[in-house]
Amino acid sequence: MEQYRVTGMSCAACSARVEKAVSGLDGVTACHVNLLTNSMAVEGKALPESVIAAVQEAGYGAALARDAGSGTMDDSGSSAESGKKGTLTGRFLVSLCLLACLMYLSMGVVMFGFPCPSLLVQSPVAIGLLELLLAAAVMVANQSFFVNGFRALWHRAPNMDSLVAIGSFAAFGYSTVMLFEMILHNESHLHGLYFESAAMVVTLITLGKMLEARAKGKTTDALAGLAALAPKTATVLRQEGEVTLPIEAVMVGDIFIVRPGSSIPVDGVVVEGVSAVDESALTGESIPVDKTVGQTVSAATMNLSGVLVCEAKRVGGETTLAQIIRIVNEASATKAPIAKIADKVSGVFVPVVIGIAAITLLIWLLLGRTFGFSLARAISVLVISCPCALGLATPVAIMVGSGVGAKHGILFKTATSLEITGKARTVALDKTGTITEGKPRLTDILPADNVNPEKLVSVALSLEANSEHPLARAIVQYGQDNNIQTEKVTDFTIFPGNGLCAMLGGELICGGNRAFVCEKTGLAELPVAGADALAEQGKTPLYFGCGDAFLGVIAVADTVKEDSREAIESMHKLGLRVVMLTGDNEKTARAIADSVGIDTVYAGIRPDDKEACIRALQKEGPVIMVGDGINDAPALTRADIGIALGAGTDVAMDAAEVVIMHNRLSDVVSAIRLSNKVLRNIKENLFWAFGYNLIGIPLAAGLFIPFGMTLQPMFGAAAMSVSSFLVVSNALRLNRIQFQKKVERIVMKKKMSIEGMMCGHCQARVQKTLEELPGVVSCTVSHETGTALVEHDASLTDGALQAAVEAQGYTVTGIENA
Asked: Helix or strand or coil: residue 483?
């Protein structure tokens, strides 16, 4: 997708004209023009030169965004927007001063006898000539309406400026003719002059444009705030010492220093130091995150306490911040399906309005009214019509909604995803890493008869050491904690959704679900007592075999995320059906599902089975698939909306239309609610845009005159000037959406000094004892150093920690804050 900046657009008719011109080019597969950001996204193989030429031929200007400044939040884009607002403000103030003088003459002096120089009192013609000059000055100050409007007419693509130009120029021209007729006939009273209407129309439209521009600027405040957080310089270590460099000069691999109170310049990995980092700018989470050696840091986040020395990993446009801004900009450049009807209307709106104005003029003349009266009705039709409101109704809500989502760690990649997420009827959830933490631990070892437990663990560890699956990592972690050595295997093969195979010492070893190991070993049944009971407890039994022999079962358990049950309850309250898709066995899956309130479970399925399940669920309505792993990518792609949690893999993120920065399920609920509110806001905007024109145009044409309702041109212009402003202001209400915040528990860190641990078995015993204490978040025990590092909440006391360890026969010599 190539991004362009488009200049000269003033309303939805302009954007429709540009879109039509570019879409007709050979090689263009899709074109989306955004009136809000004056940008255009083009997909296909068409050359940029031909795209720019097509836009210019349609009567507008265009340039590649990377040449004019990329995105909506770059420096050039911001300065251009500020310049536009400044120009509009200056034009309005000049017009207002001139209009005040004009109104004093036309209304105050002529109608109400306000004081004025005697020369003007004695010569009404002089007053008329002065009105003409003042009105002309106002029109010159706002010449852009006439230049753009008549140019668009020349290109046979009339727009909003054309309506204003025709209406104002018609009033001015008619008044000029009437004035000179009075001069030729030496009349002593002024009548039939509409100079004030001609000037009032362009002044009020300028006021509306100024208010609209200011409101538009607020729609991108969220992204502007993000971009402003990125520092302009970085302190980089060189051979000669610390050097301050522009952020653009930082390269991957550079070592940079971030001191307390400074923003982190680029994405990197901590190589030295410990600190708390405020990541609220990217994720919306107010609780600082502790960072230590080996952990990642992101650009635009704030270092709060210690000094961090980091290695740059992603710089420039590859940082997390840059990707967030790019995703939101690209989403704003696309169009939601609900905008199609407005686009169709916008394409023919202005010619239809000009036709209605001409018919209005003709009908009133045929009814015997004066030309001045008939012209006033036609001008009112022209100036009250507002295609801008139609064109802004959808993109302004999409822009604000996307920005608000990004501010809270929810990224919608397209406008379509932002709309459809709220229309879903079913939410399909992967189990591991989505409902559960995705950090399982080994809980049970059940060797088969006549099999040594060490043999079972050794084979399992040698096999699983080659896998990246979370269940495999649990076994590998157990081996590392107990200093168990692995043996090298060959011909390692993964069977997604089933298990693993490899060759060890000339024999085939395998691990996975029961059916898979039965198939590989050639056994009809795997006799092991207690495996089913483990599954019913929510643990995952992994079966292992060697050659034609069954070795036993190793059980791994994963903990359910703190917010999973509450999030699923919220989904039910929204009227959504929630199902679980997992490759785990039926009993384990059912135990997890029952604990979080899920009714429907599809267990023991492979990745392609997940895709088939999604296809079946789509028969009942739109489906959201939430996952975080490679195995989820086919289902994420098949679903109407794929949501990837932030802790997932790059493949999952690429396959998903929505990316959640946090690894928590409650943000999926927030994404659905945000989509609902954006969709409601779009409908409100469209209702106003269509309703305003459906009522305003007949009123301006004089359809309600028999009922005593007449609309003068200046009031029509006033209505038009505020219509777009109201649409934008309504969309800005989305900034007030309240997101459900996760209640963080206070985590304390303690270092325990323990005597009596002699080997890996002692270490494992202490580790298991501490982990089973309520309130313990994590712990790391080492028999070599005689220490245990424990993270726990405030409910757990030092005395409870000491008592638990000493009950196992060890001595605690001290507990201190870590």
From this structure: coil
Taking the chain, what is the end-to-end CA distance rounded to the nearest angstrom?
A: 50
> Angle at Cα 610 formed by Cα 608 and Cα 613, nearest 5°?
115
Q: Which residue has the tokens 């000539």?
A: 129
Worst-scoring range by mean pLDDT, 308-317, 379-388, 789-798?
Answer: 789-798
- pLDDT mean across residues, the chain: 83
539 neighbors 557 (Cβ within 8 angstroms): yes
CA–CA separation, 713 vs 374, rounded Å? 12
DSSP symbol at 705: G
Give backbone dihedrals phi and psi of 795, rounded to 5 degrees, phi first. Answer: -75, -15
- Residue 430 is a catalytic residue: yes
**Count of C-beta atoms within a 10 Å radius of residue 318:** 13
Tens digits of residue pLDDT in 558-578 = 888 888 899 999 999 999 999
124 contacts: CB under 8 Å, gap ≥ 6: 110, 187, 188, 189, 190
Q: Taking Cα atoms as reference points, which of 66, 737, 655 lies closest to residue 413?
A: 655
Q: For position 111, what pLDDT does the model report? A: 65
CA dist., res. 566 & res. 529, Å (int):
35
CA dihedral (708, 714, 717, 723) in degrees, to 10, reads: -60
Phi-psi region of 44 (alpha: psi -120 to 50; beta: other; left: phi over 0): left
Single-letter code of the amino acid located at 374 = S
Q: How far apart are CA 177 and CA 232, in angstroms?
A: 61
Is residue 77 predicted with pLDDT exceeding 60? no
Mean pLDDT of 206-230: 70
Question: For the CA atoms of the chain, what is the radius of gyration?
Answer: 35
Cα 294 from Cα 686, distance rounded (Å) = 51
Q: Which of 430, 558, 563, 632 does the annotation list as catalytic?
A: 430
If phi > 0 it is left, if psi is from -120 to 50 it is alpha, else beta; for residue 271 that is alpha
